[in-house]
Amino acid sequence: MNIIIKPLMKCRLCGSKLQVYEKLTRIPTKGLRFTNSICCEVEFYDTVLYICPLCELYQIPDLENFSDFYNFSNTKYIKSLNKERLSLFNELLLFSEKQESILGIEDVGFSQKINVNGKKLLTINPEQLCKKGGGENNHFVLEKSFMADFMPEHCFDIFYTICPLAHVDNPLTIMKDVNHLLKEGGVGWIEVLNGSTLVNESQYYNFMPILLNYWTPLSLTKLLQLSGFETLLIKHGLGGDELNVIFKKPLKRVPLMQKRDFQENSILDIVKKHKKIVIWGAGAKGCYLISSFSDRLKVSHIVDDNPEKHGLYMPGASLCVEAPSKDIFLNADLVIIFAVSHEKEIKKILHEKYGYTGEIFCLTEN
Ligand SMILES: [Zn+2]
User: Fold this and answer.
1) What separation in Å is there between the alpha carbon of 218 and the centre of ligand 1?
2) Among candidates 240, 207, 157, 227, which has minimal Cα distance to 50?
3) Which of 76, 103, 131, 303 could bridge 156 with an S-S bond, Cβ 3.0-4.6 Å?
């Protein structure tokens, strides 16, 4: 068979001009394609391993007339790997507030390991998404139209994919689609072969036509950044041969001053309806807002747990910071909590220790 190499001029991820990293010669075309009968015909071809100077993604050109995909989901090797994956998956769940719906792209049987327990789980086998058509290769492509027809946007809490990003020529499109499918605050996990290890340990046998992209921590981080995600964690797997990355779809950002104005106005609104107001929290947020309000905010007390602040004045405040006490909350009708990270415990103390029954207003982080 006459091997036709698809020209590869630009980085598949960032579009930069690629540099030759090393010329690869006598690469067997059939890689890991096992057959039921004897196959003595072995073909070889010469290709090039490129590196992107900007994002550090190692890449080899795709073949025009080549198809290969293998599935060894039942091997002992995959089974032990799945154990390692399961512990990483459980770590992933800890990063997400909700775990109701899960989307997986994999063909290694990992979904059967997941404790579904009332969760919605959808697994896509990469092979089902292969581009069809005569002469096309079998490297799957997640079509945007397919995703849009198939699933509504922002419907998953959790995403994971095992391996496919090594085989695709459009990794950025795929991850942008994933962004489209994940809810805000949703988290994901990618597992790929570790390109850095393969190159640094000269693992020549792992450079084969089926593997187009060899990811490194830098290129994975770049992929996530370009597709609108925040990288939370990068970890080696399988003694360094695999790379795992956990990421998050950030919540929509509100401009800083818009948030400040919104919070100031909500405080001014609520204090109008109350007479005896106590502020709880003399941290950065408390100082900023007290300074900013100056005499527009009349309060009876400012309290904080930190004894080092007791007896001291915040900038712009005419009252000193006090330790919380039953007397302070006795006749109060509004407590404003600035110390939002301690909201739950402050509310508990107010109710249980001081018997406070008035209104509580907390400035949430979001
Ligand atoms: Zn690049």
Assistant:
1) 10
2) 207
3) 103
